[in-house]
Amino acid sequence: MSNRKLSALIGSNSGLSALNRTMQRITALQRLYEACTPPELLPASRVVGDRGGILMIAADNGAIAAKLRQLAPRLLKNLQKQRAEVTGIHIQVQVLQPAGRPVPASKKSPLSIDSIEYIEELSQRVKDPGLRSALSRFAARRRARA
């Protein structure tokens, strides 16, 4: 399908036409936002819309949102200098993807036989009965795993 046919289809459908205008406006605001925002914040934030002159910005996490809130007055001033019809900025946290599965705890490498024997010897030399018992149990568990 050529661009001409697609443009005609979008123009003929009032719903698609309105959606197209909204997307063009958001794209234009995103370009202005990118020109006015520090580069290190751009990968984690984006323009998601505007309502009544309020620019809606989504941040990937709370830290980025907090920094953008600090910069909001300066961003607003710079956007207005770029002739954007923006009277305010609203920043919200909006995570793009849910956090992945938790990383399982790393498996501990087993103790060497020499280390286990040293702990057993140490358990026999310790005078405190509670510590002696704990060291003996620890050594026995480690020996069972080895």
How would you explain this protein's 3D organization?
The protein is an alpha+beta fold and 146 residues long. The protein is built from 5 helices and 3 strands, in the order ααββαβαα. It has helices spanning 3-12, 14-36, 62-81, 113-125, 129-145; strands at 45-51, 54-59, 88-93. A 3-stranded mixed beta sheet has the order 1-2-3. Helix 1 (3-12) crosses helix 2 (14-36) and helix 4 (113-125) runs antiparallel to helix 5. The longest helix has 23 residues, at 14-36. The radius of gyration is 31 Å and the shape is elongated. The N and C termini lie far apart (67 Å).
List keywords for this structure.
146 residues; alpha+beta; GMP Synthetase, Chain A, domain 3; 2 domains; 3-stranded mixed beta sheet; 5 helices; 57% helix; 13% strand; elongated
Please provide a brief summary of the model.
The protein is of the alpha+beta class and about 150 residues long. Helix 1 packs across helix 2 (about 15-35) and helix 4 runs antiparallel to helix 5 (about 130-145). The chain has helices at about 5-10, 15-35, 60-80, 115-125, 130-145; strands at about 45-50, 55-60, 90-95.
